[in-house]
Amino acid sequence: MKYKEAYELGCLRLKAADISDYKTDARLLLEYVCGTTYGDLFTKGESEVSAECEERFNDLLVKRSNHIPLQHLTGRQEFMGLEFLVNENVLVPRADTETLVEEVLKDLHDGMRVLDMCTGSGCIILSLLKFSNDCEGVGVDISEKALEVAKSNAEALNINATFIQSDLFENVEGKFDILVSNPPYIRTCEIEELMPEVRDHDPFIALNGHETGVFFYEKIVAQAPKFLNRGGLLAFEIGCDQGKEVSDIMSRGGFKNVEVINDLCGNPRVVKGFCY
């Protein structure tokens, strides 16, 4: 089978399976198994695909047609221009979360100590350390398997960070200049309504914000002042309908200059404030 034919077949099969971005996914899966690039679709479209690559491609098309996330099939996802290892034990890093990183970078200065609560793949803390100098980063997660992924990412990116297994602040020590978190914030009753890639394949523990969706914001805000230096920043990613509720939680918790920041689509995505 020729390269372009394989791509077109992939598009047809994924479209029939109601994969929304079927063209991109077919291309990326083909590039993954063949070790090719985007340009090869145009310059090498008439070249033959080996039998081994064709078999692997067909196998991945079956899995993607069953709504296994693309990133779980390739084992990687780009975030903040960096490539992160991902699997079924962590949330796939999403472009929305780049807004959180970009906002924190505005207040991150050389030599600061940063705590990333609910670190998952480590994409937030590792991105912050990558784009700063001489900062100390600590990532916390309750999931040992998630921390294994985060540690692998730190090693792959050659970034020095500390990762701690902890139920929120249970095993955390010391003070920090910045506390950043993308906690679980989906209301339990809404998880069943999510797209199958998320509902069936992302870790439930990383999605479930309990009945209200703000359970973890309340928990973190209540304890954060004990772990933040005076003037320290607390910054959260939020669901697009949680801006007022989370900002009110922070204000009641004593945080000052609380503000809601929109993402590139104009949706509320980050709430941040300062501890005095």
Describe the structure.
The chain has helices spanning 3-16, 22-34, 40-43, 51-65, 70-74, 95-105, 123-130, 144-157, 196-199, 204-207, 215-227, 243-252, and strands spanning 76-79, 82-85, 113-117, 136-141, 162-165, 176-181, 228-237, 255-262, 268-275. Strands 5-4-3-6-7-9-8 form a 7-stranded mixed sheet, sandwiched between helices. It has a two-stranded antiparallel sheet with strand order 1-2. It is elongated and about 65 Å long. The mean pLDDT is 97. The protein has 2 domains: 3-66; 79-275, 3-Layer(aba) Sandwich (Rossmann fold). By secondary structure, it is α/β, with parallel strands linked by helices. Helix 1 (3-16) crosses helix 2, helix 1 (3-16) packs parallel to helix 4 and helix 6 crosses helix 7 (123-130). Strand 1 and strand 2 (82-85) form a beta hairpin. It is 42% helix and 20% strand. The termini are far apart. The protein has 12 helices and 9 strands.
